[in-house]
Amino acid sequence: MFSIFNKTWLALAALLLPGLAVASTAAVAGEATRLDLTNSGIGFFAIIIFVFAYALVIGEEFLHLRKSKPVIIAAGLIWGTIGWVYTQHGMPHMAEAAVRHNLLEYAELMLFLLVAMTYINAMEERQVFDALRSWLIAKGFGFRKLFWLTGVLAFFISPVADNLTTALLMCAVVLAVGGSNTKFVTLACINIVVGANAGGAFSPFGDITTLMVWQKGMVSFGTFFALFIPSVVNFVVPAAIMHFAVPNEQPDASGETAVMFRGAKRIIALFLLTIITAVSFHNFLGLPPVIGMLTGLGYLQFFGFFLKKTHHRCVAERSGNEVHEGQIGDLVAFDVFKKVARAEWDTLFFFYGVVLCVGGLGFLGYLSLVSEIMYTEWGATNANIAVGVLSAIVDNIPVMFAVLTMEPHMSLGQWLLVTMTAGVGGSLLSIGSAAGVALMGQAQGKYTFFGHLKWTPVIALGYAASIAVHMWVNESYFS
Questions:
Q1: Which pLDDT does position 55 carry in this prediction?
Q2: pTM of full prediction above 0.85
Q3: How far apart are CA 191 and CA 81, in angstroms?
Q4: Which pLDDT belongs to residue 28?
Q5: pLDDT at 189 (0 to 100)
Q6: Can you say whether the dihedral through the CA atoms of 132, 137, 143, 145 is positive or negative?
Q7: DSSP per residue over 185-237, as a string?
């Protein structure tokens, strides 16, 4: 029998990762016959393998080792061990069914991300962000105003889109405006991650975790907006403190006005239409959002074909500069995938590794152990606050799914609390949310794990303040 200390350590260790894959392993494999390996050498081996791999991920900045490599190896070792154990017990198909389910979860995530990245790169190729940078400089906005502008936009766009897509979009603006000013880019990216996660917490479709809570019927659509004020507090408190560290300077003016290439505005419109399609497919048709995103990729591909066929109508789009044949109106997707191939694929394969690792640890039985410890021994309030802290180490999705799977008896106020903490807790560390992980790839070398960690105490202050405000303004929901 484990001591309380050992149980707590295992609970933390089993959740030390982001991903989607803990979802309904029991439904796939059959809860009654699945082996409980939490108190076995196999289970301990899986945890050790993952912790070691994740330590390499955290040390990426110093080791210069791509974060995808250790978790891919860890996923293979964990599932290879599971497959061996279940084969020895005459149940190889059970492990196979579980890992196929995890692969399906990853495929949805990867394709969703790929479409979002493709649109971001398409807009970059059409000089959307260069034009925005020129406009912002022409307006005379300094770094501090730009810091607030991108953060506020992230907060208010995230509830409509998702926090990941919003963060990618705002980060592209920051990189275009900030240039070589690493300090500004770092602080602005942190602010974007906090703003996007906080903005997604009060909307039913602003984050995957809020979608899960809504679809499960724990919180009604309109009740989510009770989290608006606490979410504002969560964003504003750290932003107000970081404001004084932002360089009080103007962006370097290049002296050249950037003009968007032909089709840029229509690509922006198609991106918005893609987001609407994804949300509509999920909310009204009951289909995975990725189906709507892939449909939106088709919009972009057809428009790229149109640009290619009509490029002969194009004239020089920048005064005094000649546009080379084929530059305007080339098939956007092919150019985009060449750009995505270097940095973003590391992020996508990182998600593969952690999704499979989470699935393996959940399949071994640690999910049930964690749920029992948190809601039976700690109590609802402490457990829900801990969910947010765990979301800084883990991604919020497996933690929230663990809560929904156990379905503890809680008041509506507690369900709102865990919804908020799971959404904003990931801001405490750069690896705690999909937005943070994606920005580490997009702003590689400028926005890093340790650059974010330096400001974790300030973000934690906003986290604590948002909890206090929620328990005050939404007191009636706790009865």
A1: 83
A2: no
A3: 41
A4: 41
A5: 93
A6: negative
A7: HHHHHHHHHHHHHHHHHTSTTSSHHHHHHHHHTSS-TGGGGGGHHHHHHHHHH
Q: What is the torsion angle, in degrees rounded to the nearest 10, for the CA atoms of residue 193, residue 199, residue 200 and residue 206?
A: -120
DSSP string, 321-374: -PPPTTTTT--HHHHHHHHHHHHHHHHHHHHHHHHHHHHHHHHHTHHHHHHHII
What span, in angstroms and rounded, lies between the C-alpha atoms of 343 and 354? 18
Q: Which two tokens stand for residue 217?
A: 């019927």
Tell me which amino acid residue 448 is.
Answer: T
Q: How far apart are CA 428 and CA 425, in angstroms?
A: 6
**Greatest CA span in the chain, whole angstroms?**
78
Comparing CA positions, the residue from 154, 175, 153 lying closest to residue 164 is: 154
Kindly state the tokens that stand for 438.
């994606």
CA atoms within 13 A on the CB side of 452: 29
380 near 410, Cβ under 8 Å?
A: yes
Q: Token pair for residue 175?
A: 């990189």
| Tokens describing residue 320 | 């005094």
Distance CA 113, CA 135 (A): 28
Phi/psi zone of residue 140: left (φ > 0), alpha (ψ -120 to 50 degrees), beta?
left
Q: What whole-number distance in Å separates Cα of residue 337 and Cα of residue 80?
A: 32
* Tokens encoding 214: 């809504």
pLDDT for 330 equals 43
Q: What residues of the chain score a pLDDT lower than 70?
A: 1-32, 60-61, 133, 137, 160-162, 205, 215, 252-256, 311-344, 367-368, 371, 394-395, 397-398, 401-402, 405-406
Altogether, the residues listed in the chain come to a count of 479
Angle at which helices 456-473 and 412-424 pack, to 10 degrees?
Answer: 160
Q: Which are the contacts of 6, defined by CB distance < 8 A and separation ≥ 6?
A: none
Place of tokens 């973003």: 344
**pLDDT at site 52:** 92
Helices and strands in the chain: count of H runs, count of E runs? 22, 0
The amino acid that residue 206 corresponds to is G
Rounded to 5 degrees, φ, ψ at 296 are -65, -30
